[in-house]
Specification:
Layout: H1 6-26, H2 32-36, E1 38-39, H3 50-53, H4 61-82, H5 84-117, H6 126-132, H7 134-137, E2 141-142, H8 146-159, E3 164-165, E4 174-175, H9 176-193, H10 201-220, H11 232-253, H12 261-288, H13 295-307
Antiparallel strand pairs: 1-2, 3-4
Helix pairs in contact: 1-4, 4-5, 4-8, 4-11, 5-8, 5-10, 8-9, 8-10, 9-10, 11-12
GO cellular component, one term: membrane
Domain Peptidase S54 rhomboid: 46-216
Protein name: Rhomboid family intramembrane serine protease
Amino acid sequence: MRNIPVMTKNLLIINVLAFICMLALTTMGIDLNDIFGLHFFLAPDFQVYQLITYMFMHGGWMHLFFNMFALWMFGVVVENVWGPRKFLFYYISCGVGAGLFQELAQLVSFYMTVNGQDPTIGISELGAVATQLGAALNTWTTVGASGAVYAILLAFGMIFPEERIFIFPLPVPIKAKWFVVFYAGIEVFSLLGTANDNVAHLAHLGGMVFGFFMIRYWRNHPTQGYGRSQGAQFFDSLRNRWEQRSHRQTDTRGTEAPQDRQSDWDYNARKHAEQEEIDRILDKIRRSGYDSLTAEEKRRLFENSNRN
């Protein structure tokens, strides 16, 4: 937990605590998922704040685990690239966007159901029908961080499109951009081919759609948010931590006895050479992207980041 950036860490903690509170209060007859989950906007129990609170509620341990595992895996990298404020803004905004997509899906479903029973009922009359069916519509509740998490997955794929990662059950690594396409395809297939599985597939896709257009906007207006592309800011932070560590070590060793001066020179010369090598690798990333590195260069960068 010490190495997880602040917003990702706080989101993980809040989600876990919210789930524990939900379990504890259920024994007292209080259903937090019903209070803070996202209700259909024509239902009596709908509240605007639920567009935010629903993403901190979960339906079970497995639901919570997979969302938090994906948030940890990809959120750490994305937050290191963007910084905490932009990361949190993106996460919450895409979660709200996912909720709006889910509301639209429920509206279409409600209209088709009502119109199928009585074709004379139009859009303008749905409010009156919803009032009569309020108790049933209150059961249409959405919970979970999946929409926001899918947006984080998309962000990783757009920032590091050529980076190779493993996904189960494929035995070979694939590029991150195809990883995103793979999961988006699963959601589209599930949305079209699976009915009544209690999974908000359109909300997942909605989070990705909101994230896609947000990142495209930031790239077209770099002074308003997105900043430098391909994660250069993230790798610059590695360089800064390396330089700070080298300075601290040099200052500390400068206080040693005169007989150790020659070893100090050797040590500093070696550190200077290592620093030049890291600088060269980072410059290569800026020019040609991370995927252009050789296996040895990737190993050196990885070892350096672990030491820092």
